[in-house]
Amino acid sequence: MTFAALKTSHYTILALIVSALLFSTCKKEQILSDSSAKLEFSEDTILFDTIFTTVGSTTAWFKIYNRHDQPLIISSIDLEGGTQSPFRINVDGSSGITFQEIEIPAKDSLFIFVDVTLDASGTNNPLIIEDHLIFFTNGNEQVVDLVVWGQDAHFYYADTYISGFPPFSIIDCNDEWFNDKPYVIYGYAVVDSACSLTIHEGVKVYFHASSGLWVYRGGQLTVEGTEEDRVYFQGDRLEPFYDNVPGQWDRIWINEGPNDNTFNWAVIRNNLVGIQAETFPLDPSTPTTTNKLILNNTIIENASALGVLTRNYKVNANNLLVANCGQYCVALTGGGEYNFHHTTIANYWSFGTRQTPAFAMTNSYQDINGDVQVRDITTSRFWNNIIYGSNQNEFLIELDQAATADYYFEYNVLRTDQSTNGSEFDGPTTYVNQSPGFISSFNADFRLTESAFARDKGTSSSSDAINDLNNVLRNGDGLGFDLGAYEYEDQ
Fold first, then answer.
1. Residues 36-49: pLDDT tens digits?
2. What pTM value is reported for the model?
3. What is the span of the domain harbouring residue 235?
4. Which of 394, 352, 390, 360 has the alpha carbon at shortest distance from 377?
5. Which of 15, 122, 351, 389 is surrounded by the most beta carbons within 10 Å?
């Protein structure tokens, strides 16, 4: 073949390739316009359940599918409520309320993101707000429903900023919170000195990220839940994803004062520290409190650091469950006087490695100046308790001999490698490394099975724990009361 012929042949081949490419390109660009060609959706209803007014939701999403062999053009996507809608829409990276001429390639899909913020409604009843995303394609109208369950609340917003302290607002002196609608706290809500806050049965208190409740020195907190209407303290994200996410808010922080701080039938969950009760840290010379932290029929769970932390505080606990914390469930430090009775302290933390025991008690601590303070532990008693968990050692006592420590353990199940042969332990009734017999530690169900070791191992109960944490009468089965916060009950 001559060079000219070869050249002509190459031109012919090139022309054929270009023609094929042009034909292919034209074919790909043919838009499917048949009225039978519709969109498909991964969801037909986007539901937000439940959010508070003025508190934004998490972002939900769904996908639009073009299942066809040719591209589709969506003529328009319209948020029906327009600028008045509480919903916000993002289509493939662009925000707005109306979108036009959106092409979806053949066999491809498109993301749409949705979130919502509600204005205050002035009503306690859960409100339902609905809007719609309307899609027009090839003359077809298709709709995705947007639905939000919302609720109005009492809001506390931080309005005071002092260096070294979290932002806070002051609660009205001697205030009472009733179950008319929930309470939502931004920053810290503070019970001031010589003031009190009473929280009545059924109240739900929700905290935004890094927020908390602070009972300043001289203040008083009384929580008056009942078995039927417990008082709840938790984060303000109510989407199911957040049900068991620890560290969503900060803590309940209580300083010293003339009056006891009492929790009856309370549930405190998903924060950094459940309750931190201590003498005011900026004044290390403050002696151990004369008042008490009283915890009756209370659950503290899923704290990312500690469930109960005390420094120089007296504690009375009856029917207390403290469970699944990132460090200690209960840490008693400095001076104090303790009565723990029918308490279950159970740490099966599953969000990472934990090196600390479920329970620790020491009579020393490091103050804000870096100095080690050593205080007395006065007459203290621990009985009818379970202290257990997934680590080899869940029980630790470390004492500085520079101060006295008067305490006694009897009728307890302990998981520990620490010696319990001392006079501070009743030998026959200190049960070491005997699995208590929880129904399911994996599912955080710390009630007892019928064959549980902790059954009938307890002694007589005080009047504060005649009924257990589920309000079940402790009958003793004629042998003895069950250890821990729960008496066995036939299912």
1. 999 999 999 998 87
2. 0.81
3. 153-478
4. 360
5. 389
